[in-house]
Predict the 3D structure of the following.
Amino acid sequence: MRSSMKYQPLFLSRYTDPAPVAVSGVNGLSTGNGLSSVNGESDELFFHVPGTGFDDFLGTYPDKEIYTRRFDAVLRAYRPDVVHFQHTLFLGYDMVRQVRNTLPDTAVVYTLQEFLPICHRQGQMVRATDNRPCTHDSPRRCHECFPDISQEAFFLRKRLIQSHLQHVDLFIAPSHYLREQYIRWGIPIDKIRFEEYGRSPDEPVEEVATINAQARFGFFGQVTQFKGIQVLLEAMQIVKGMNTPVQLTIHGTPMEQVIEPFRSELRRVFEQCHGYVTHQGSYVPADLPELMSRVDWVVVPSIWWENSPLVIQEAFHHGKPVICSDIGGMKEKVMDGVNGLHFRAGDARSLADVLQRAATDPGLLRRLRGGIARIYSMNEHVRELETAYDTLLARRAPAPQGSGTVHSADVVQPGVTQ
C-alpha cells in the first residue's frame, strides 16, 4: 500500500469472543476471515481467534486455516511493506512464516518482549524446581522444570520455533541483557539490535507531602509470584520490626484476580502488614502521575530477569529513584547509587537493608533524584524504527535510480488485548 505519509500504520490485534459472532467484513474481506474494526477505526482491526485450543507449548493453533487462509487473506488485502510483530502470544509463530509465504518481499520485524520462545514457564526463565532465575535453556534443564514433558519434546520445540523465527529480518531487543540471551539461544547477532522502549511523557503532578517523615514506597505492576511481591512484603515486615516509619502502597492486580494458591498466601501476609501496607488494586495510565506523586521510591522486586520494565521509565519520568533486584533488565536500567539502589534478587533481608537505608538516610533521596536522566521519548523511538524500516525496505526492494521515492509501509502489529 502507498500513501502520502512515509509510513501508514495498520494495527492488528487478537480478539476472542465468549461465543462465535458474526464479524463484519473489512476492506473487501468476507466475514469468514474474522476481521472487525476497533470502534469503527479503519486502521485498527481485531483479528478474531478461538478462545480455546491454543497450544502454548508449541505456540500455535492446530487449525492451520487461521494462518493459511484467514491471515493469508488479510495480508493479500492490505499487502503491507513491513510487518512488525509486537507479540505472537495466542496468535502463533506461524504468522511469521505466513508473511514470508504470502508476501516474500515484505520486511518482517519482531520485538522481543520477554523469553517465551526460550522458556515454556510463561517466558520467565525462573526454575520451577526452586524459583531461582534460570541462566540458560537445554532439553535436560527444561525437562527438570516440566517432568511430564520429555527432553525430546523440548528439543523439537526449540527447532520448530526457530524455524518460524528464521523468517524475521530484524529483531528488536529493548534491553542488552535480553539481546545477549537471544543471541546465545540462536538468533544471528547481525539480526538483533537494541532499541529502548519510547515513552510519551505526561505531566508530573505536584508532590504530595509525606506524613510524619515516613518513607513512602510504591509498587506498580502485576501481582504475581514472579514480580517478587512476597519478597517485598517480607522485607517490609523486617523494616517495620526495627520501628522504622515506612509505608508501602501496592498498585496492581486486584486480589480477586490473583491466582490461587498465591492469593491465599498474599492475603495472610497482608493481614500481618496491616497499617503500613496498602493494596490499592488496579489503575489506569491516566492515574499514574497522581499515584506517583504520593510515593518517594518505586520498588521493582522481581525474581525473574525482566526485560525493560516500563515502570522504571515511568518512575524516572516522575523523578522517583528505583529500588530493584540486581539482575537482568532491572540492573541494566537502574544504576546503583546513581538513580536508584540494588538488592540481591529474591533476598528479603537484602531488600530490607536497602529499604532501611532509604528510610533513614536524609540526603539519599535527593541525591538519587539528581542522578535521574531524561527518559527516551516516543518520538526518538519512532525515528529509530523509521530508519530501521527504511534500511530493510532498501535491501529488499531498492527504489529505481533517480526516483527519490521512499517506500511507505503498513505496520501490522498482532498485539495481545488486555
Summary: The chain has a mean pLDDT of 89. The two ends are 29 Å apart (CA to CA). The chain has 13 helices and 14 strands.
